[in-house]
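Model it.
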Amino acid sequence: MHRFNLFLSLVFLLLTVPRALAQGSACKKSEVLAQYKLSLSTLKNQTDQMERYVTGQDVEGFSFSLVFGPSFDFENTESKIKEIRNTIKNNAGVPSENIALVNCLEALKKNDQKVIYEKAFTLFQQTKITLLEKNLELEDNI
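Modeled.
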């Protein structure tokens, strides 16, 4: 149940953080840093869950569809991998919906946090690729 709550937190962050930052023209330091900490924590937990899942460990409440959505089609795996690789290449792993937070960190001259956030997202995206490749290898039986 705890793992599912982490997933819901990530979904909530992905939907609310960009909107909250985009609505205000100025980046409020306290809000940005609070959102950064919460988002980074959730991101690291999700990455850890995926890594354990790929290695065959039991991860309570975790499933393939939690990462890629219930409508993910196995036939689209290759294009999804390409999409993720492009995100890594073009945005340091940060999906477009989280760029506002990265921009605020940069505007606030929080470069160390920005680099940490980008590295965490890159690892998250690489782990998603590993999960997809493992699923391909197992012919959609992960």
